[in-house]
Structure prediction request, 562 residues.
Amino acid sequence: MKKQKIKILSIIMLISFILTACTNTGGNDGEDEKQYEKASGGEIRIPISNVENMNPLLSENESLYSFYDLIYEGLFRFNNEHDIENLLAKDYSIKNEGRTINIELRSDVKWHDGESFTSKDVKFTLDTLRHTFKNKEYRDILSKYDKLIKPEDIEHIYNVSIIDEKNIEIDFDRSFSNSIETLSFPIFPSHQFSDEEGNFSYDKFLESAEDFMAIGTGPYKLSEYNKGESIALESNENWWNEEKPYIKNIKGIILKEDEFKKAFEDENIDVLKTTFKSFDDFKSDKNVKIHEYPSNDFDFLGFNFKKDIFKGEEGKAIRKAIAYAIDREEIIEKVYDNNATKAGLPILNNSYLINEENDNYEYDVKKAKKILKDAGFKKSGDEKLKFKLITNSNDKYRKETSDMIVEYLEEIGIEIEKIYQEDIEKMMSEIEKGNFDISLLGLELSESPNLAFAFHSQKIEDGTNFISYKNKDMDDLLVEAFSAKDREIKKEKYFEIQKILLEDLPYVGLFFTNNALIMDERIKGDIDPLEYGVYNNIEKWFIPKELQENKTEENTEGEKQE
Prediction:
């Protein structure tokens, strides 16, 4: 299991898991919105940056990942519930105790150059990845790709066999429950990198960065590349999906990332992905729509289990009282201007792995006080509970959150000394040394779930289980969940994991912060961005015929579609 890093503010921690329930805001909220007929045609401009080559697996630029998703497709993709659904795969079966996956491919898929999509393309892509991970330089680059391709997962693939043109068998060296998630990367055309005899050339794939021609199976295909300026795409009329894209052209405008926001404000681009920190800049703009969705950034309180006070039943009582004492909804409203989504567990919001019957400690001061009283803790005197809470103060949102938590805990008789660190490295050093009682931190969760990094006792020495939490039943369940031979068993194990997490409360979960896709309000349709698929459902977007050429005076005043 891969070692992870804690993310404080801008320091990112990669774990295992997105969500999506989008909210549309901005513009003439409260006013009647005009209904538009769906229409084909039009163009949207989206920002991309630092295009050194057109090979998506050799790009270290995160802003390009979603752009390349318009061109390429994988066997599987993540849906709104963070579960896997078929894309280029028509069907699959898992056998051999979870170590073998048989995949039937769609029979109606063509590459953008007209060639048929076959099992050879899947084998070529998998073998290329396996070959590439042997090179440290490429391994480091590929490890960053979309935060989904993990070398240690790909390396568990030890054999890829072509059964026939539309069926392939993939063997893993062990069973692990994220094997299907491992196969969500883009597939590449083998014929593009084969010699005259049809032999694959992995090196040709890796060495063709300068003159790489992007050929995929996705809803859009490359039409023009102006180096340093733009990449033009046009809709793929031969796309296998019955619902072809309405929007005819997409132009990727190459900019520096710090220029994205101004380019949107100057109407040089039509789409902008942003975080909760920038929402207020657009909420009063009648010419934009804000499509908000929860990010994968999870904020929580972690407890230092090396401290005797947090051990045993008394320690559990303290943690439960703290969980009931915090008004998450008030923090979300006052600190985050409602641009966050309440969450009690480090599992992505709306995930298919979440047990909806969980009791997530809703705000209840009376219950918090009673728990402490029943456990024998006093609200005053020498026996009053006193803790040190550490967090980073160079993020005003986290600092304000911490200030409110201090007030909540004072109300139930817990005194908090705030340790605010502006120096991230110094704070991390203090946490790693165990010089804290309670920490207010954040994690960025990936789509492929694996909570062992945070809660397995073997990860204490690695430093990712920085709270030093130990529970034998949890250790066993984490291993069982990771090695589950099918997805139903995986789900069952995660339900059991949640039960222990909510009973032991090693973390008191707070919320996921929200991101948003901010768009020119001319763009209508079923707009449903995902953290790992910001252009999700783009085939359902459209620009009304009367708004395709120029923004009308009527549109400038902020009309919108329901």
